[in-house]
Specification:
The structure is a single chain. The chain has about 325 residues and is of the alpha+beta class. It folds into two domains: about 1-200, Jelly Rolls, CATH 2.60.120.10; about 205-315, Orthogonal Bundle (Arc Repressor Mutant, subunit A). The protein is about 45% helix and about 20% strand. It is built from twelve helices and twelve strands. The strands form two sheets. It has a seven-stranded antiparallel sheet, sandwiched between helices. Strands 2-5-10-7-8 form a five-stranded antiparallel sheet. α9 packs antiparallel against α10 (about 280-285). The longest helix is centred in the middle third of the chain and has 24 residues, at about 180-200.
Amino acid sequence: MDVYSTSHVPPDTRTNYWNQVYSSRFAQVTFNPLDHQEFEAELKLDHVGDLGIARVRCKPTDIERTRSHIERSPRRLFSFVMQLRGSSVFSHYGHEITLEEGDFTLCDNATPHRLRFTNTADFIILRLRPETLRTYLPNPERVCGLKLPAREAFTASAATMVQTLWDQVERGLPTKFDAMVTRAMLEVLSTSYALAFDPWIAESSVVSARRAEARQFIETHLKDPDLSPGMVARALRISPRYLRMLFAPERETVSAYILRRRLEECARQIASPLWRGQTLTDIAFRYGFNSAAHFTRVFRDHFGVTPRQYRKAHLSAPPLSLS
C-alpha cells in the first residue's frame, strides 16, 4: 500500500506539495484549502485486481477537476465515492448533492466535478475502467452525480462491504481472491443502484449514452461564450431536433440547462472566500456571460437576489487567512 501525507511538510508549502503529489499519484485535480496554514491531508492507495481503492482524509478544502485537468489525463475512469466520515457537497453532471456518512455517489473523471467540505472529511474511493463497470451497470452515466443514500436498503450492505474491504486491504488481501472480491463488491453496488434508480437505469442505453455525451460536452465547455444548443448538436453530429428530444425527459431545455449550470457555477464562486478578490463581472464573464446587466437579471430570476446581495449574504464573515 502506498501512503502519502502532508505531516512532514511545512505549512507554507503544504498545498503546493499536496497538489503535486495527488495529481501525480492518483488524479489530476486541484485542492483549494479553506485555510492553507491549517491544511492537512493523507492519501492511501492500493488495488484489488482491476479495482483501484483509495482512502482520502483531509481538512476543509475544495477539490476540483476542470477541463484542463481532463486534457492532461484523458484516460477515462469511473469512481464510486463513499463518505466515510464528515459531510461534503459534490457537484457533477449538473447535479449538486450533500453526502453524509455512508452515502455513495458515482463519478466520471471525463467530466468536470467538484467536492467541497467545511469540516474534516474521510472518504473511500473505488476506481475502475468503463468496460468493467458496464458489465455490472450498463448505463453508469445515468446515475453519475446522484446520491445513493445510506438509508436505502442495500446501501448499508454496500457501505459495510467497502469498509470491510478496506480493512482487509490494509491487513493484506491475498491476490488469489482478487477476482472474487471485485465481483462481489461490484454486484452489491450495482444492485444498490438498480434498486434506487431502476427507472433511470432501465432507459434505452442509446438514448442514455447520447444524453450523457451531450451533458458531458456542456459541462466541459461552460466557460465558452459560444456554447449553445447548436454548438452541442454540431459537436455530437446530431440534429438540433434530436438534441431537444434527448433532453425532453429532463423537463428542461438544452438552453435552460446551460443557463442554469452557468448560474450555479457563478453562484459557487461568488459565495466562495477563495474568489473574494474577483469582481462579479469577472466571474460572470468567466462563465460565458457578456453583459453584466443580463447576468444580474437572470441571476436574480434564478436565485431571488442580485449577485451582490448573494455575495454579501454568503461572505458576511471575516475573510479567512490564505497566507
